[in-house]
Amino acid sequence: MYAGIDIGGTFIKAVITNSEGKMFANGKTRTPETSDGINDAVIGLLKGLTERLDSRVSALRAIGIGAAGAIDGKKGVIITSPNIQAWHNYPLARIIEKKTGVRVFLENDATAAIIGEWWIGHGKKFRNWVMLTLGTGIGGGAIIDNRVYKGQSGSSVEVGHLTIDYRGKKCRCGNTGCLEQYASATALVDLTKSMLRGKNNSSLMARIKEEPLTARMIYEETVKGDALARKALEEISFYLGIGIAGLVNIFNPEAVVIGGGLSKAHRFIFPIVKKVVEERALPGLKDNVKYLATKNEDKTPAMGAAKVGIDSSEL
Amino acid sequence: MYAGIDIGGTFIKAVITNSEGKMFANGKTRTPETSDGINDAVIGLLKGLTERLDSRVSALRAIGIGAAGAIDGKKGVIITSPNIQAWHNYPLARIIEKKTGVRVFLENDATAAIIGEWWIGHGKKFRNWVMLTLGTGIGGGAIIDNRVYKGQSGSSVEVGHLTIDYRGKKCRCGNTGCLEQYASATALVDLTKSMLRGKNNSSLMARIKEEPLTARMIYEETVKGDALARKALEEISFYLGIGIAGLVNIFNPEAVVIGGGLSKAHRFIFPIVKKVVEERALPGLKDNVKYLATKNEDKTPAMGAAKVGIDSSEL
């Protein structure tokens, strides 16, 4: 038995699986705001899931964790993370190892997501394909010749930081005009807020009186037919299309898969993305690309993290 | 004995080599404006070089040709080419085969350039690296795990068509804001022309009275200390840096190699590119990148084309 944990900006998701990808249990909880809170939440999830299987945490053979940010996988250290300020040279793997007595392996969350998709999702059908995870930021990954591309230092395909407007919006990474400033869930919320200013004909107006605006809320109101919500979702899909056209021109992939919270909105996103790629990418490279959304956002990235644990513990 | 031909917008370059990369002869000629003219020039080069070696064209085991544009390598057809209008679904390989009696294999010129660099240039030192060819347009290629990345249909890493400004300059590919509209030799000439308007303090003024402005001329005057020429070269290097920062964020490569005519100006280009990548690419991905110019622009791309012929004729 192995555990996989996907620590996102909003939820922590966990699975228990065997080495063949048979999932025995899964669960999730809201992401606490402090690093100690996150550690406790991870342990709590692992205890709950193993108990449900009449087992215990120490019976796990390895734990894999996917987390947003710059990761030193060899050392098990989070160098920096956009979501959690306290994660600065933070030895997350060692800390969870001490609390559980189980070996822990750490990976970038977008890399864990594509490993999950490659292992138990759409990836079985293709040899060369790319994935974008649409969440607080935009992560990415590429499978080349049926293997995860890692680059020289273990990080790659940071598509969220492709420049789409070199004089554009300032990004927290230091660059200007990064794709994730235009097409992430965060960008969708910011854009919608600015569109709502001075308006009162959107169903979102009533909802934001009760709780803060979220990307999920914008998606839900789009489904219900709210025109402003849909317009916002379609505008960020346009920018996403520009980034994906870039990936298509670079990788000439068999498929583009989207994951992350926003991927639920794929039926509104993909028609715009396909139109932009058709208009902007090169003939020959754009012609046979399949566009797919991850099948199970609640499980696949955590399963990918588990796969990192499985493969790393066998080395 | 094998031949390699590199058909560029300005010159056609040819080499004769053995299968181990030992070059016996090389030569070049100006690129004619018609497809028939190009065919005759290719045959002329092959005759001249083989005669110099006391041999003949029909003694060649294979001919590899690199040409700009969308190439169907399997059929030996140029689908479209930016440089030669008449090359539209043009069966160049079959035509040269008929004229020579030797098997001919066709490849995109940027792909041929990176194959040459991988075979006899800087590529021996790295496993994961990228190349940009700076000429009339900007081509590109990636070596991943010591193999040329080809994508699903044989074309990839079209870095010249990465969008750096989604509302920017119109590109002949249909997209707006493509890197090659800002950082190719063509872009350098256009930028310099606009900077020269109304000026009379540049040494380029005297030269353009005698012949049309070229990128080579701008490079030569930069070397001689002309401030305007240098300013233009540095401005396109800034845009090139934005594109290379994107490649660094995607590939996390060990090295970035530049080829093509403009690569001669590497000592003016790279300081700006390095500064832009340092400012704009992500920590961890940009940290250990080497920047190199191709060693022999007159031979390496043609040698890469020869290697395509060598490998394809062995299949």
Protein described:
2 copies of one chain form a homodimer. With 315 residues, chain A is of the alpha/beta class. The first copy, chain A, folds into 2 domains: 122 residues, 2-Layer Sandwich (Nucleotidyltransferase, domain 5), CATH 3.30.420; 172 residues, ATPase, nucleotide binding domain (Nucleotidyltransferase, domain 5, 2-Layer Sandwich). Chain A has 10 helices and 13 strands. The first copy, chain A, has a 5-stranded mixed β-sheet. In chain A, strands 11-10-9-12-13 form a 5-stranded mixed β-sheet, sandwiched between helices. A 3-stranded antiparallel β-sheet of chain A has the order 5-6-7. In chain A, strand 2 and strand 3 form a beta hairpin. In chain A, helix 5 runs antiparallel to helix 8, helix 7 packs across helix 8 and helix 8 packs across helix 9. The longest helix of chain A has 25 residues. The radius of gyration of chain A is 19 Å and the shape is globular. Chain A starts with a strand and ends with a helix. Chains A and B meet through helix 8 of A and helix 8 of B.
List the helices and strands and how they pair.
2 copies of one chain form a homodimer.
Chain A: E1 2-7, E2 11-17, E3 23-30, H1 35-52, E4 62-67, E5 70-72, E6 77-80, E7 88-90, H2 92-100, E8 104-108, H3 109-120, E9 129-134, E10 138-144, E11 147-148, H4 180-183, H5 185-196, H6 204-210, H7 215-223, H8 227-251, E12 255-259, H9 266-280, E13 290-293, H10 300-314
Parallel strand pairs in A: 1-4, 4-8, 9-12, 12-13
Antiparallel strand pairs in A: 1-2, 2-3, 5-6, 6-7, 9-10, 10-11
Helix pairs in contact in A: 3-10, 5-8, 7-8, 8-9
